[in-house]
Specification:
Layout: H1 3-24, H2 32-36, H3 46-66, H4 97-115, H5 131-153, E1 178-181, E2 184-188, E3 204-208, E4 211-214, H6 220-228, H7 240-249, E5 257-260, E6 263-268, E7 271-274, H8 286-295, H9 303-311, E8 312-313, E9 318-319, E10 366-372, E11 397-400, E12 417-419, E13 428-429, E14 433-435
Parallel strand pairs: 10-13
Antiparallel strand pairs: 1-4, 2-3, 4-14, 5-6, 6-7, 8-9, 10-11, 11-12
The structure holds N,N,N-trimethyl-histidine and fe (iii) ion.
N,N,N-trimethyl-histidine (AVJ) binds at residues 139, 142, 146, 387, 417-418.
Length: 436
C-alpha cells in the first residue's frame, strides 16, 4: 500500500464519518418542518447548513481540486454565507430536505470517484498532503457544531439525549488552582500541520513574561458565587463595553440557566436539569468572562498565553499538537467529538494534562481569550480570504481549545476560533490568568 492510497483511505473514511454525524443532527432526528424552520434568528435553518456543506464540498473538491464543471450554479448564491445573513436564510428558495440530501449525496459520489485517482502533488498547494480534503472535512465538522448550537436553541421535545455517557477519568490527587508558566520563548502556530488553516500559520517564536493560568476552566459553582455576589449589578467588574452589553441585554446569568425555589437549573437540548456545579460554565459571552475574571482578581489569558500553557514543554523545549503530546486524541485524553452532550466536571482527564499541568485545555468548552483575531506575522490567506482574513480586526475575539462538541479533526493546540464578544449560544466558557 502506498502513502497515496493510505491518504485516500483516511480522507474517504473521514468524509464518511462526518457525513454520518451531519445526518444524525438533521434528517435522522427531525421532520421536514423542523429542518426548514428557523429555530432562532441567530442561526440558519438546519437544511441550509446541510446543503451548504455539500455546496462547499462541490466548490472545493470538484471544481477547484479536479476541475469538474459546476453542477447547479444557480444555487451557489443561496449557500454563500456572505450573500445572505442567517436571519434572511429561511425566506430564500432553499432546496427542501429531500432535494438537499440528494444534492449532497450526488456531490459526495463524484468526490469519492475522483478521490480514487487524485494525486496529492507536493507542487500543488491545494492538493499537497490532501490539504483541500482536510479543509472540507473540518468545514463540515464545524457546521455540525453550529447545528448543535441550533439544537440547543430549539424548543420542543428532546431528540438528541439518549444513552448514558461513558465514565470520565478523574484526577485523584488534589490539584493546585493555578499553574505557573515560566518566562521565555515558545513556538506559536504551525508551518507543518497538514490540517492547519491559514490563520494557524506560520510557526513563529514568541517570548512571554511569566504568568499564572487556572488549572481548569471556571466551573458553575464558582460562577454562581459571582452571580450571587451581585456581580451582574456592579459596574465595577465590567469594562465600559461590557457594562453597556449588560444593561442593553438585561442578562443576569449565563444563557439557559433557570432559578426555581432558590435552586439553579439549566436547559440542555430540551431537558431541564439541576445545574451541575462541578462542570465548566458554558454559554457566557466574552463580556461576562471578562467581568468574572476581574471580580476574581484575575484577567483572561491572552491567546499567546493560552497556547503556551496548552502546548509548550518548557523542559524539553518542544511544542505538542495536543496538551498531552502528539498522540491522537483518545477517550482517555479529552472530552471531544460529541461523545457526551455536555462538558465533564473540572478535574477530569489527568492523562490529558499539558506539560505545565493545565487540565482540559482541549475539549469540554471553548475558552475565551483576551485577544482580538488577527493574522500572525507572515500570514498569507490560503486558499481563500473569506475563511479567516476578512474577519481580522478588533470585532472578533479568539476562542481556543475546542468543546465537547468539536471533532478531533477540527481541534489542536494551534486551532483558532473567533466570534463576537456578545456571543453566548456556542459551547464556550473560560479560565482565568494573572501576571506572575
Ligand atoms: C471559524 C467557526 C467562526 O462558523 O463562521 C464555517 C467556520 N467558516 N464556514 C464559522 C466556518 C465557513 C467559522 N468559525
Ligand atoms: Fe461554512
Amino acid at each position: 500500500e502506498t502513502d497515496t492510497e493510505r491518504l485516500r483511505e483516511l480522507l474517504a473514511g473521514e468524509l464518511e464519518r462526518v457525513r454520518a454525524r451531519s445526518f444524525a443532527l438533521t434528517t435522522r432526528v427531525l421532520d421536514e418542518d423542523e429542518l426548514v424552520k428557523q429555530h432562532s434568528r441567530l442561526m440558519s435553518p438546519l437544511v441550509w447548513d446541510l446543503a451548504h456543506v455539500g455546496n462547499y464540498e462541490e466548490l472545493w473538491l470538484l471544481r477547484a481540486a479536479v476541475g469538474v464543471a459546476p453542477m447547479r450554479p444557480e444555487i451557489d448564491h443561496l449557500y454563500n454565507a456572505f450573500e445572505h445573513p442567517r436571519a434572511e436564510r429561511p425566506s430564500l428558495p432553499l432546496l427542501d430536505p429531500t432535494e438537499a440530501e440528494d444534492y449532497i449525496g450526488l456531490v459526495r459520489r463524484k468526490v469519492l470517484d475522483s478521490l480514487a485517482s487524485v494525486r496529492f502533488s507536493p507542487d500543488k498547494p491545494l492538493l499537497a498532503d490532501g490539504f483541500v480534503y482536510r479543509m472540507v472535512i473540518q468545514h463540515e465538522h464545524q457546521h455540525d457544531e453550529t447545528m448543535l448550537a441550533t439544537h440547543q436553541l430549539r424548543r420542543g421535545e428532546p431528540v438528541l439525549l439518549g444513552t448514558d455517557p461513558p465514565p470520565v477519568p478523574r484526577v485523584t490527587a488534589p490539584t493546585p488552582a493555578e499553574v505557573l508558566v515560566e518566562a521565555g520563548e515558545f513556538v506559536m502556530g504551525t508551518s507543518t500541520d497538514p490540517w492547519a488553516y491559514d490563520n494557524e500559520r506560520p510557526a513563529h517564536v514568541v517570548n512571554l513574561p511569566a504568568f499564572w493560568i487556572d488549572t481548569t476552566p471556571v466551573c458553575n459553582a464558582e460562577y454562581v458565587a459571582f452571580v450571587e455576589d451581585g456581580g451582574y449589578d456592579n459596574p465595577r467588574w465590567w469594562s465600559p463595553a461590557g457594562w453597556e452589553w449588560r444593561q442593553r441585554s438585561n442578562k443576569r446569568t449565563p444563557a439557559f440557566w433557570l432559578r426555581s425555589d432558590g435552586e439553579w437549573f439549566r436547559r440542555r437540548f430540551g431537558r431541564v436539569e439541576p445545574l451541575p456545579m462541578d462542570e465548566p460554565v458554558q454559554h457566557v459571552c466574552w463580556y461576562e468572562a471578562e467581568a468574572y475574571a476581574r471580580w476574581a482578581g484575575k484577567r483572561l489569558p491572552t491567546e499567546q498565553e493560552w497556547e503556551k500553557a496548552a502546548s509548550w514543554d518548557p523542559v524539553r523545549k518542544v511544542k505538542y499538537r495536543y496538551p498531552w503530546g502528539d498522540e491522537q486524541a483518545g477517550a482517555e485524553h479529552a472530552n471531544l467529538g460529541q461523545v457526551r452532550l455536555q462538558p465533564t466536571p473540572v478535574g477530569s482527564f489527568p492523562r490529558g494534562a499539558s506539560p505545565v499541568g493545565a487540565l482540559q485545555m482541549v475539549g469540554d468548552v471553548w475558552e475565551w481569550t483576551s485577544t482580538s483575531f488577527t493574522g500572525y506575522p507572515g500570514f498569507r490567506a490560503f486558499p481563500y480570504r473569506e475563511y479567516s482574513e476578512v474577519f481580522f480586526g478588533s470585532k472578533y475575539k479568539v476562542l481556543r481549545g475546542g468543546s465537547w462538541a468539536t471533532d478531533p479533526t477540527a481541534c489542536r493546540t494551534t486551532f483558532r476560533n473567533w466570534d463576537f464578544p456578545i456571543r453566548r449560544q456556542i459551547f464556550v466558557g473560560f479560565r482565568c490568568a494573572r501576571d506572575a
